[in-house]
Amino acid sequence: MEGNNSIGGSLSSGLRATLERAVVTAANLALATAAADARSDPVVPSAIVLALNYAFPLLSEHNRSEINSDALLPIAVEALIGPEGFEHASFLAGIDADLKEVGAQLHWGLEASSFARLQDLETKPLMGGIGPLSKLAAFAVERATNANAVMTALEALLAFTGELLGRWQANRLSSIDQSEETVCLTPDALRTTPALWETLRKALYSTVTVLQAIVARSLLDPNLRNDIVAPKVAVNVLRALRNLYFISSRNANSQFQVYSFTYLTSLDILARFPDASVSFLSSTRPRDPGAAPGHPLNRTLDLFYLNVAEHLPLNMPSPACEDLIVQPATAYLTQAGPPSHLTVELFEAAHSAVLSTLSCPHNGALTVKLVPFYIDTLFASFPSYISTRQFRVAFKTIMQIVSPPFPIAATDPYLSETLLEMVRFRALGAATTPLPETPDAASSDAAPAPQHVTSEQSSLVLTLIDALPYLPLPLVQEWMTVTAQTMNAIADPAMRQPVKDRFLEVLVSGEMDVERAAIGVAWWGTCGGRELVVAGGPQLAPVMSGAIVEDERASKL
Question: If you write DSSP's letter for every residue of 254-300 in order, what string do you get?
Fold first, then answer.
């Protein structure tokens, strides 16, 4: 058949329609006997899929709908992951045997038989069109009338991703962190491994494309969205994504819309089912929840675990939250040694998981128990291991949790002020030298923004300012004054000015609700706030020389 651009000019519409119907009829006849033919010749199903893979983009929507998707789905998935596709990840098996130690480095050269096999894999006809093939399989998922066929396809993809992870785990290349590859691999290995990662990326993209179709169908198909099947679909999809995470976490490979939809939708479905959430976390939790593993692959899997756990505590019972979220996250709440991109992500994921757990209203008792430990850990990490932004976000979240309308504000009314006093007390003796840049996962992924020079002292004062919109009403005016006085203790004008700007921003930007804003207006106008912020303290009114000045300390009797 001809390309899309030339069909209209060389074929009449009637002839084209006839050809399309003939292709679909032939495909359906072949699909009807594919299972029986495969017993005598295993290549037959792959040949059918290959032919359809080339013809499918040329078919009209109507003729596509005439394809027997129930028969196509299993052989399309098998073609994707089977001997004519990714070979059930067997191409990874021989790599470890070909790895040689050259001093402290690993060598995997161009002459290795496993590298030759990898190149042969890429020359297969189906691998040359692996993108269209994954779309063909996704189409079959959408149009299949049998929901059981969709579940079978999901199980096949889950098994394939499990094979990928298992074979990668047995490979010594998995023990090398990405940041250390230039040191731990020989120059030849640095030339061969990109080809391996390119093949693994193809496996990720093609698998996620089919998973996305399964998740999308589970939202609409009554047979898949009921309370019995829906959590199974979500769990299996998340397990498959976990198995692929050693690929998707590398070089932002997961930053595409299909992956985001698949991942976030599965999380939303799973979060509705407490028992399924607990079961999933129990089956994937780190082997030693109290300690960070040394193997980079295990740390990568822990990162996926923490990212998932962050979304699930709202409907989970408190004991499960403590056991399955807080305890595994504790190992990563502090950092030791030089930070890398992975350790920074783990650090932020651990803090996010803990804060997510503490912010759940039903975890009030757990929050009271954990907040002192968490704040102590936060102070121990700042400023050596976390940035000013990370510290401020974490503390502000804690202040929201311990302030109204959260129940803990009623049971422990002094907790919020105690936390503020801890920050203020530390700010009084904090270092005033400019802080160096600290690795920050959020800022590294975003576009660089202009940063003001901050010290430990100014960062702590900024933290106090961030907390003002969340304080209980009786504390707002008092702590506005205390915060302004602490701000004025910053000696360096260059560091004090951004803090002053932030103070003014909080007062006028709408971050405070109506009641707190009214208190702020009164404090600014009649309680000395303007003098404290703008002039650095109360100013004496101009008087004539020799005038009698009222002494505030004089007796009022």
Answer: T-SHHHHHHHHHHHHHHHT-HHHHHHHHHHHS-SSTTS--SSHHHHH
Give CA–CA dist 543/554, Å, rounded: 19
Angle 236-241-247 from CA coordinates, rounded to 5°: 155
CB-based contact 395:423 (threshold 8 Å)? yes
pLDDT of residue 142: 95
Question: Which position has the token pair 């990326």?
Answer: 201
Q: How far is CA 368 from CA 80, 189, 407, 469, 470, in A?
A: 52, 52, 11, 21, 18
Query: Is the pLDDT assigned to residue 434 strictly greater than 50?
Result: yes
pLDDT of residue 287: 84
Residue 107: enclosing H or E segment and its boundaries? strand 105-107
Q: pLDDT at position 556, please?
A: 36
User: Which CB contacts under 8 angstroms, 24+ apart, belong to 329-333?
Assistant: 329/353, 329/354, 330/289, 330/290, 330/354, 331/286, 331/289, 331/290, 331/291, 331/292, 332/292, 332/302, 332/306, 333/374, 333/377, 333/381
pLDDT band at 87 (very low <50, low <70, confident <90, very high): very high
Q: Token pair of 523, please?
A: 């404090």
Lowest mean pLDDT of 187-201, 316-330, 521-535, 542-556, name the range: 542-556
pLDDT of residue 546: 58
Cα end-to-end distance, the chain, whole Å: 106
Taking the C-alpha atoms of residue 137 and residue 283, their distance in angstroms, rounded to an integer, is 29
How far is it, in rounded angstroms, from Cα 483 to Cα 458?
Answer: 11
Rounded distance between C-alpha atoms, residue 246 and residue 162, angstroms: 12
Amino acid at 222: P
Is the per-residue pLDDT at 3 higher than 50? no
* Residues 342 and 181: beta-carbon distance below 8 Å: no
Mean pLDDT of the chain: 88
Does the predicted model carry a pTM greater than 0.90? no
161 Cβ contact partners less than 8 Å away, ≥ 6 residues apart? 207, 239, 240, 243, 244
Question: Can you tell me the mean pLDDT for 43-67?
Answer: 92
Check: CB of residue 492 under 8 Å from CB of residue 500. no
Q: In this structure, which amino acid lies at residue 443? A: S
The whole-angstrom separation of Cα 509 and Cα 292 is 42
Q: Under the phi-then-psi rule, with left for phi > 0, alpha for psi from -120 to 50, and beta for the rest, what region is 546?
A: left
360: alpha, beta or left? (left if phi > 0; alpha if psi -120 to 50): beta
Give the model's pLDDT for residue 550: 55
